[in-house]
């Protein structure tokens, strides 16, 4: 490969990756701030229901991604890769910025969650068109035999986008007081996206069309009906279904378990301080991200199949031991309390309905340096405890700050999960591109990717959190592990289908 061609493809990767990274950043801010958002756009009467509703709204963005894949994939195969993913970039940036502008539930009532839902759907549609375009664009610039390596740089953008979203949120929290962040500071990461989108748009504007697509278009070999040729053709449909059930479905649940479910688990099941979670997750992501490129490069040497299937198998076997260790490491039940340092403060405080609530703040310290703060709010009306379904209306917020040793233990356990992610995700762009011919590639690869990631992967946080909550209500002793059955079963099905039907060679790959 010449220096000139290397320089050219780095320009392509830089421009494509920056735009795709910003789209992922936009998409994942919502998930990273799910705990805060649940208190802003949904009724505050039931925090658990509000959080689940937020996760469901988060999931909607994933559910509509396949529709974005169909709509923008068709455009990409007809008018070109470049212009299509410029449109998706602007759509994503605009929707993200507007989410940061929506008044709270207290101000405009049910219109707030409705607007969030609508904008979340627009985000999903945009991302549905972005990824396939960026991956196809880079793959069509890459030399045959090196697609795994070059497209793996695009694969890093999803994790880098998540990392940047965490770092922006962390920086905003540190600059503002907790009260300022809770009041309006959480909107800042949404507002910042419009600046990044503007810069990326200017860069992408000067890019050329994919040479492979431009050649096909000049020769009159592009498709006039990509949807029909992709899904109406039985031969091609077989590969679409194989890509979905044998690869992207399992890849999707491994990706979201290793990053988003890990974050949700640490914050909402283990009650670890949000800033600590963002920091340790960020460290694990930084250490793990280079492995996307490593496994992409390795897939050029040994084939895509066994690397992706190996990642799924390791996840299937190790998720429960990993999450059990995560829970046991930080559980205060396994720690020795410094009883003499325990304090309880009781106070009456006016709530937003201008009646008084009883607030009990308990602070505990443990021998290993861990601290716990529990704020219990007993809701009163005219001085009497409010009773709902025969139970006193009480909200409890627990925050645990872990010691340095536990933090690094969690970094390691999350890092292992990120390695699984890099194994399944690093090679998959090249794998999908090589399954389909140029004229219907954008459409054909986008749909199974976004069904696998959008439907099976995107629903994971909501489904797994529901399983955990339900198991906890039923008194299951290891309730915190119940949410893992969803990714384990989905990955197992994908592993079996992939091992049986996917071939581990690229000799017949489409050029």
Automatic annotation (TrEMBL):
<feature type="transmembrane region" description="Helical">
    <location>
        <begin position="279"/>
        <end position="299"/>
    </location>
</feature>
<dbReference type="GO" id="GO:0022857">
    <property type="term" value="F:transmembrane transporter activity"/>
</dbReference>
<dbReference type="InterPro" id="IPR005828">
    <property type="entry name" value="MFS_sugar_transport-like"/>
</dbReference>
<dbReference type="GO" id="GO:0005886">
    <property type="term" value="C:plasma membrane"/>
</dbReference>
<feature type="transmembrane region" description="Helical">
    <location>
        <begin position="239"/>
        <end position="259"/>
    </location>
</feature>
<feature type="transmembrane region" description="Helical">
    <location>
        <begin position="21"/>
        <end position="42"/>
    </location>
</feature>
<keyword id="KW-0812">Transmembrane</keyword>
<feature type="transmembrane region" description="Helical">
    <location>
        <begin position="445"/>
        <end position="464"/>
    </location>
</feature>
<feature type="transmembrane region" description="Helical">
    <location>
        <begin position="83"/>
        <end position="105"/>
    </location>
</feature>
<feature type="transmembrane region" description="Helical">
    <location>
        <begin position="408"/>
        <end position="433"/>
    </location>
</feature>
<keyword id="KW-1133">Transmembrane helix</keyword>
<dbReference type="InterPro" id="IPR036259">
    <property type="entry name" value="MFS_trans_sf"/>
</dbReference>
<feature type="transmembrane region" description="Helical">
    <location>
        <begin position="48"/>
        <end position="71"/>
    </location>
</feature>
<dbReference type="InterPro" id="IPR020846">
    <property type="entry name" value="MFS_dom"/>
</dbReference>
<feature type="transmembrane region" description="Helical">
    <location>
        <begin position="484"/>
        <end position="502"/>
    </location>
</feature>
<keyword id="KW-0472">Membrane</keyword>
<feature type="transmembrane region" description="Helical">
    <location>
        <begin position="306"/>
        <end position="323"/>
    </location>
</feature>
<keyword id="KW-1003">Cell membrane</keyword>
<feature type="transmembrane region" description="Helical">
    <location>
        <begin position="184"/>
        <end position="203"/>
    </location>
</feature>
<feature type="domain" description="Major facilitator superfamily (MFS) profile">
    <location>
        <begin position="12"/>
        <end position="506"/>
    </location>
</feature>
<keyword id="KW-0813">Transport</keyword>
<feature type="transmembrane region" description="Helical">
    <location>
        <begin position="111"/>
        <end position="129"/>
    </location>
</feature>
<dbReference type="Pfam" id="PF00083">
    <property type="entry name" value="Sugar_tr"/>
</dbReference>
<dbReference type="InterPro" id="IPR005829">
    <property type="entry name" value="Sugar_transporter_CS"/>
</dbReference>
<protein>
    <submittedName>
        <fullName>Predicted arabinose efflux permease, MFS family</fullName>
    </submittedName>
</protein>
<feature type="transmembrane region" description="Helical">
    <location>
        <begin position="150"/>
        <end position="172"/>
    </location>
</feature>
């Amino acid at each position: 490969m010449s220096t000139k061609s290397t320089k050219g493809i780095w320009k392509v990767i830089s421009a494509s990756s920056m735009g795709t990274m910003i789209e992922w950043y936009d998409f994942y801010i919502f998930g990273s701030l799910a705990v805060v958002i649940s208190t802003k756009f949904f009724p505050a009467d039931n925090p658990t229901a509000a959080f689940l509703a937020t996760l469901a709204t988060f999931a909607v963005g994933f559910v509509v991604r396949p529709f974005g894949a169909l709509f923008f994939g068709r455009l990409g195969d007809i008018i070109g890769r470049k212009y299509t993913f410029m449109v998706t970039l602007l759509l994503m940036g605009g929707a993200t910025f507007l989410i940061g502008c929506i008044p709270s539930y207290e101000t405009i009532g049910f219109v707030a969650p409705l607007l969030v839902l609508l904008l979340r759907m627009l985000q999903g549609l945009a991302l549905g068109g972005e990824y396939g375009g960026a991956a196809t664009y880079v793959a069509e610039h890459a030399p045959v035999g090196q697609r795994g390596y070059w497209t793996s740089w695009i694969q890093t953008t999803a994790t880098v986008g998540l990392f940047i979203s965490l770092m922006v949120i962390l920086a905003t929290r540190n600059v503002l007081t907790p009260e300022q962040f809770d009041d309006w500071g959480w909107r800042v990461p949404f507002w910042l996206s419009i600046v990044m989108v503007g810069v990326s748009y200017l860069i992408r504007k000067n890019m050329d069309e994919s040479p492979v697509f431009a050649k096909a278009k000049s020769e009159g070999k592009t498709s006039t009906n990509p949807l029909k040729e992709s899904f109406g053709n039985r031969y091609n449909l077989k590969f679409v279904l194989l890509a979905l059930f044998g690869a992207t479905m399992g890849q999707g649940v491994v990706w979201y378990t290793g990053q988003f479910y890990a974050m949700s688990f640490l914050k909402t099941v283990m009650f670890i301080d949000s800033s600590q979670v963002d920091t340790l997750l960020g460290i694990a992501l930084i250490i793990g991200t280079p492995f996307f490129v490593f496994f992409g490069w390795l897939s050029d040497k040994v084939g895509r199949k066994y690397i992706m299937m190996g990642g799924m198998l390791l996840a299937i076997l190790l998720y429960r031991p990993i999450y059990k260790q995560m829970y046991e490491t930080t559980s205060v039940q396994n720690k020795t309390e410094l009883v003499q340092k325990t304090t309880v403060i009781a106070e009456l405080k006016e709530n937003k309905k201008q009646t008084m609530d009883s607030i009990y703040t308990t602070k505990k310290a443990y021998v290993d340096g861990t601290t716990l703060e529990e704020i219990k709010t007993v809701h009163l009306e005219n001085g009497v405890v409010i009773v709902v379904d025969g139970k006193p209306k009480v909200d409890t917020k627990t925050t645990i700050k872990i010691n340095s040793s536990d933090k690094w233990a969690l970094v390691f356990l999350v890092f292992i999960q990120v390695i699984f992610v890099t194994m399944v995700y690093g090679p998959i762009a090249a794998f999908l591109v090589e399954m389909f011919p140029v004229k219907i590639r954008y459409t054909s690869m986008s749909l199974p990717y976004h069904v696998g990631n959008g439907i099976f992967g995107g629903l994971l946080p909501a489904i797994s959190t529901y399983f955990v909550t339900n198991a906890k209500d039923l008194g299951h002793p290891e309730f915190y592990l119940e949410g893992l059955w969803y990714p384990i079963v989905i990955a197992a099905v994908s592993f079996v289908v992939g091992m049986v039907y996917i071939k581990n060679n690229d000799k017949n790959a489409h050029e």
